[in-house]
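Notes from hallway chat w/ T.B., transcribed later so I don't forget. T.B. wanted the structure written out for a chain they're using in a teaching module, and asked if we could keep both sequence and structure tokens in one place. Agreed to drop them here.
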Amino acid sequence: MGDGDKRESWADYLRRMTDRPGWSVARLARDSGIHRATIFKWMAGKGGANVASVRAIAEALGDDPANALRAAGNMPGAETEAMDPDVQIILRRLTDPTVSDAEKDAIRTALKYLAEVAERADTERPGRVVRRRKAS
């Protein structure tokens, strides 16, 4: 990541990771299943990535998803919105060297499941409004 007082942005993270030997945006697109144009857009600081996309990027790069999520949380506009305290706890647990691998795997599995459920809901019923009935 860089100096301790400045968080790495999503665009900087992607640039740093694709600048490594053997890596390119084309390879990242192929390995992650995310279109190359989308990755270039993110690298230009435009648009945001959902959790499933961030996870796919991290997995393709062979990086800890917590690093990618931390960078993705530092996208434009993120500085004006406080990160949810529960998400902060999760990120701390994932990056804490004293936390067991089993607990980290359980957290990642739960996050992956939630991301998949959210993605399915977005693709199956885009824009659907659910109205609840009043209890009688």
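Follow-up for T.B.: The mean pLDDT is 79. Might be a good example for the class.
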